[in-house]
Design a protein that fits this description.
By secondary structure, the protein is α+β, with helices and mostly antiparallel strands. The chain is about 30% helix and about 20% strand. InterPro entries: DIOX_N, IPNS-like_FE2OG_OXY, IPNS-like_sf, Oxoglu/Fe-dep_dioxygenase_dom. Belongs to the iron/ascorbate-dependent oxidoreductase family.
Length: about 350
Amino acid sequence: MAGYDRVSELKAFDDAKSGVKGLVDSGITAIPRFFHHPPAAAVPNETTLATQPKIPIIDLGITSGDFSDRVSVVELVRQASETFGFFQVLNHGIPLFLLDGMLEGVRRFNEQDLAVKMRYYTRDQSRKVLFNSNFDLFKSPAANWRDTLFCVMAPEPAAKPEDLPDAAREIILEYTREVQKLGGILFELLSEALGLKTEHLNEIECGRGLSHLSHYYPPCPEPELTLGTTKHTDPAFLTVLLQDHIGGLQVLHQNQWIDVTPVPGALVINIGDLLQLLSNDKLRSVEHRVQASKIGPRVSVACFFTTNSIQDERRYGPIKELLNQKNPPKYKEVTVREYTMHFNSKGLDGASAVDLFRV
């Protein structure tokens, strides 16, 4: 539009280093234009909760000690991973006080004195700990209504404990240890769901790397104009998501957006692009998004199992044991770093990153 200098407005927002929360704290009643999404992208879901398909909820039975019915659990994981690409897990072994503590740690970091928080604000993606708003701020068609703390937790060289923010250091370290244990179990179940030996995915180091993305979605004065997160798939093997009670996460299923309703004590698991590639499209990395809301702040923690932070030359392609004449390889081999660099270079533009690597 005449007189609108988008680049200057983006730069002013980024130079302030206060993120979306800084805009809200300033008392704005209308969101900046660079947050405006096309109407078709930001429109709320029209289906009601009563008519929506339900994301499966799977009781792993780890906490209760009832992990005996493994065949049944594997089958539920297989069905969910092939159909929805998403499922929630209960009795996953991570205590409720750690889940609550992790969410509180994210709030504490984002709501502390701005001068302290600004020390972590950067667009240098080689950093092991960084804070900013929209990693693709200058590339994406429209910005998302959220701020993010990113921490590389594994493998070495990862963030050192002293590099983590004081406001959340201890809980990040403790939560990471528990998520890594759960990741090992999930990769076992997914290996069996693919008809492979139990340790297959762990042996090829799908669970070796772990990165935290702690998202803070402040209340939005005009949620109908924007999104908390644009539709995308995850550039990882697997994602373990902790979300609070507010909701807003939606999954694209059979061309309709369905809500991932928060369940107390549950974790949301979703298949990433790299696991879809490994499984030759048997497991599905599905598009998802987060709606903006006047209610908030919404807090979530996405733990990505990926080794994108290191120069690892291991190449991943469709698992040979899954291939035959009727099921030839659908993807080229790629390193995790190559894949992530492609994902980051294009940003959250609504297009799938995995398609570039199809044969």
